[in-house]
Amino acid sequence: MTNPLAHFKPFPEPPALILEYIAERSAEESVLDGPSPWDLGSLSAELLASIPAWLDSVCRWLNTAYAWQPQDVIPPCWKKHEGLGYEIAALAFARTDAYADAGSTVIWHEQYDRFLTRMNKALGKAGDECRVGRHEDRPARFQLAAWPEEAASDADEPRSTERVGEMA
Fold first, then answer.
1. How many other β-carbons are positioned within 10 Å of the β-carbon of residue 116?
2. Inter-helix orientation angle 51-66/82-98, to 10°
3. Are 52 and 79 spatial neighbours (Cβ–Cβ below 8 Å)?
4. CA geometry: angle 115, 40, 119, nearest 5 deg
């Protein structure tokens, strides 16, 4: 008799460089005070280089393991949806920690369900097209284009809200 659970695949391992970085950050005597590995926008180019392939394998794993309905599929163009990259990274790193104890695992599944809700809200109707390989540019690009460019000297000053009011 074959084992009916034998086809379950393991969750993809983070890249070795990322595992080393995490170990160094969490060592008691560590002098490394770098960003969290799920904070994609803060990682060095060296650390960030190995993350996209891993997150892609995480998305494929999540889709294979959990996506029974079309709206549960993470689209193959997830990298073009900036917010999804951050969310997927946080979810992937959280899963590693969550599987240390059964209660945390249940909470991770609740987080995954909330991720799907946020993903579908962010993708909107465009998500259907993205899921079948027809990515459209960001629908909010017109509204985002209304924001004036931030000058280097203005970076520390509060932004003017005049143009923002025009979008309402």
1. 18
2. 70
3. yes
4. 20
Residues 6+ apart with CB under 8 A from 58: 11, 12, 88, 91, 92
Q: Are 163 and 147 in contact (CB under 8 A)?
A: yes
Instruction: Note the pTM of the prediction, 2 decimals.
Output: 0.78
Query: Is residue 84 a contact partner of residue 119, using CB atoms and an 8 Å limit?
Result: yes
Question: How far is the CA of 24 from the CAs of 19, 29, 47, 149, in angstroms?
Answer: 9, 9, 13, 38
pLDDT single digits (tens) 7-35: 889 999 999 999 999 888 887 666 667 88
Q: State the sign of the Cα–Cα–Cα–Cα dihedral 144, 148, 154, 158.
A: negative
pLDDT, tens only, 39-71? 999 999 999 999 999 999 999 999 999 999 999
